[in-house]
Amino acid sequence: MSQPSYMASIEACAAHYGEDADAMRAYLLNGHVRAVTLDNRGPIEFDADGRLAAHIRDAYKKYGFYVFTGVLAEEELDDIKQDLAQIKQKFPVGPEAKLAADGSPGLGVDCAAPTLVWSKPLADPLGGSTLANGRHQVKLHEPQAAADAPAAAPFILLGSLQFSETCLRVYGHPQLLKVAEDINGKDFAPFNECLFIKEPGIGAAVSWHQDGTTHWDSDDFDDGIHGFNFMAQVYGSTAVNGVWVLPGSHKLGKIDIKELVKQSGSERIADTVPLICDPGDVVICNRQLVHGSFANTGFEPRITVNMGFHRRSSVLDVMGAGIHNDAQKFDAALIAKRSEVIGYGIDARRQRFPDEQPYEYQPFTEQGLSYEWNDAAKASLHNYNALDLSI
């Protein structure tokens, strides 16, 4: 990102806050400085025993997030950008439409499981609502969009791996899966995958929230029981278009976000920092962190390839939260079926990057299972996210 463009985005964002423009500008600038001075960013590193480097584990445990730098190379980013451009051409022309602009069936219209989520430009569609079990307790500021903005725009694509082979390859990244193993155990389980789409001048806000739902009152509660998300950044992320987090809040249990806002005197919650990333960086973010993002009133896009993982103990024989799909009990057979996408991701990546050492997933190795990414496998992913392990 060029500094003049970034500063212009900060100024554009602040201008949308009227009397609070100066306060918003200071919040963005100060948050950026605090974020990049924390000791929780750098390349993925493992020690001589193959464990995630101690300084990464310690920082992740302390802050609840870590910015892995340079995970996706330029070649892979180019693949993703080309793929996403084609996917956007397949989006229906509107929230209720069945066809894309060229008259072909719109992406996801034949899916029973949720796929494309729309929002009014610069709105906060979840804030203050009962959606997602009411976890978005407050509504963020909704700036005025430009007169020529569309009536609605896509901002989340759920079940993204059935639509994007490049995202599936990211899912099979051997270093990221090794991190998942180190954090959640060799028998880690999947959660869900999606794309967050924050186009300049359009991208919706996502109100402050914590992702976890099921285990807040569990006797086994700890700071990792609700799992984590990887957030791979295609274009990078900034204080204007990126996710903001409250470091350390993953340790505090269920938090009254309305009270946090009240204590802070505004929706600019005190001590929060943005996830500052270059293209190709991947953030690991604890799902219990208080986090959210403001409407993208700047000039840079943010496309986040999002994918989550759980400890098996957190989902096995647990009744799901019913946020991403119908509430259901997650037995061993369902978890095994949902985990097949890990095998397809590993092989899809192997086919594209044959010089990499593929990741070996212990549950497959123990059962002698292998998965090949081909047309039949692609067809099998249709509606796969109906089995998302939402807790």
Question: How are the elements arranged and paired?
Answer:
Layout: H1 3-15, H2 21-37, E1 41-42, H3 54-63, E2 65-68, H4 74-90, E3 116-119, E4 153-158, H5 165-171, H6 174-184, E5 189-198, E6 206-209, E7 228-233, E8 243-245, H7 257-264, E9 273-274, E10 282-286, E11 291-293, E12 302-310, H8 312-315, E13 318-319, E14 329-330, H9 332-352, H10 362-367, H11 375-380
Parallel strand pairs: 1-2
Antiparallel strand pairs: 2-10, 3-4, 4-5, 5-12, 6-11, 7-10, 7-12, 8-9, 8-11, 13-14
Helix pairs in contact: 1-2, 5-9
Structural overview:
The protein is built from 11 helices and 14 strands. It has one domain (3-106, 115-387): Sandwich (Jelly Rolls), CATH 2.60.120. The chain has helices at 3-15, 21-37, 54-63, 74-90, 165-171, 174-184, 257-264, 312-315, 332-352, 362-367, 375-380; strands at residues 41-42, 65-68, 116-119, 153-158, 189-198, 206-209, 228-233, 243-245, 273-274, 282-286, 291-293, 302-310, 318-319, 329-330. The strands form 3 sheets. The chain has an 8-stranded mixed sheet with strand order 1-2-10-7-12-5-4-3. A 4-stranded antiparallel sheet has the order 6-11-8-9. The chain is an alpha+beta fold and 391 residues long. Helix 1 (3-15) packs across helix 2 (21-37) and helix 5 (165-171) packs across helix 9.
Helix and strand run: HHEHEHEEHHEEEEHEEEEHEEHHH
Overall shape: globular
Largest sheet: 8 strands, mixed
**Average pLDDT, all residues:** 95
Low-confidence stretches: none
